Amino acid sequence: MILRSVPARVGLLWVRFGFACLMRRPLQALLLVLVYFGLVAALQLVPVLGIPLSIAVTQITTLGFMQGSRNIARGLPAWPMVFAQGLRGPSPRLRSLLLLCLAYVLALMLALGLSALADGGALLRLFLFSAYPAKGAVANGALGQAGLITLLVYLPVSMAFWFAPPLVAWWGMGVAQALFTSFIIVARNFGAFALYVAQWWGLFAATLILGSLAAAALRLDSSPSLLLELPLWLLLFAPFALSFQASVHSLLGEPPQGAAS
User: Fold this and answer.
1) Which pLDDT value is given to residue 141?
2) Domain limits for position 246
3) Which of 255, 257, 197 shows the shortest CA–CA distance to 63?
4) Residue 260 pLDDT greater than 70, yes or no
5) Phi, psi of 194, rounded to the nearest 5 degrees
6) Is residue 192 part of a domain?
7) What does DSSP assign to residue 89?
8) Is residue 166 included in any domain, yes or no?
9) CA dist 22 → 26, 94, 225, 243 (Å)
10) 73, 92, 96, 191: which one has the fewest Cβ atoms less than 10 Å from its Cβ?
11) pLDDT for 118-139, tens place per residue?
12) What's the CA gap between 152 and 145, in Å, rounded?
């Protein structure tokens, strides 16, 4: 493994890579997204453990999207079976991957738990139980403060977990080493990641505005307008998810032979 540092402008190339993958295999790319959302929705129906399971599985599906876009870049199929490839590795790596899933749930719960210092747990209840906060929490700005706390705590969490799935599944690192290595790599290339995230935020915001304007022009109510906006979100989420692998290839290089196929 080679740990590289790249100029900030490379973050834009990662975005372009996601769109290139979508253009090469549009059917398979969209099918990956549909299966992902279907899996998350199905897990959320599980009593009590639904939300934690849907959070945990993102570490496995992230690895699947990386493998899918890696396949597309090499001219290979990228059907939804790639989501299961991380579960087929050697037992030690599988255990580490599952432990990573648990660590991600705990880290996200910690971020949301700390937000309770500002709003008394309104944001946490909204996330876990879809319990809408009291009007007072919105009016006095407590919910906004809670969101800011969550964002600030989640930033280092996202840095630690960004490369952790492939480092565990492809490079065979332990969970602690993978989290530390991922954090250091992202910190060393913060400019590229900042530009990468800003580009995606802009694209998603533009899509939201475009969908709203189209709905208003067609005089659609909220439900029909959602049906109009949903395909746009799916079309954008596909290249977003497929772009993850670009940063892996750019900063870590190719995984050991046979580790990811």
Assistant:
1) 77
2) 10-252
3) 255
4) no
5) -65, -45
6) yes
7) S
8) yes
9) 5, 29, 25, 10
10) 92
11) 877 778 777 776 666 666 556 5
12) 11
CB atoms closer than 10 angstroms to residue 123: 25
Interatomic CA distance for residues 15 and 29, integer angstroms: 15
Whose structure tokens read 């946490």? 124
- Neighbouring C-alpha atoms within 13 Å toward the C-beta of 174: 2
In a domain, 222, yes or no: yes
Taking the CA atoms of residue 79, residue 83, residue 86 and residue 88 in that order, the dihedral angle to the nearest 10 degrees is: -70
Q: Write down the pLDDT at residue 220.
A: 64
What stretch of H or E contains 193? helix 190-217
pLDDT one-digit tens code per residue, 91-126: 999 999 999 999 999 999 999 888 888 877 778 777
- pLDDT per residue as tens digits for the range 23-81: 999 999 999 999 999 999 999 999 889 999 999 999 999 999 999 999 999 999 999 99
Query: Does residue 224 have a pLDDT over 60?
Result: no
- C-alpha dihedral sign at 31, 16, 197, 86: positive
In the chain, how many domains are there?
1
Contact call for residues 120 and 142 (beta carbons, < 8 A): yes
| pLDDT score recorded for residue 221 | 63
Give the total residue count for the chain: 261
Of residues 48, 87, 70, 97, the one with CA closest to residue 241: 70
Confidence at residue 229, expressed as pLDDT on a 0 to 100 scale = 72
Question: DSSP string of 123-145?
Answer: HHHHHHH--PPPHHHHHTTHHHH
CA 68 to CA 218: how far, in whole Å?
37
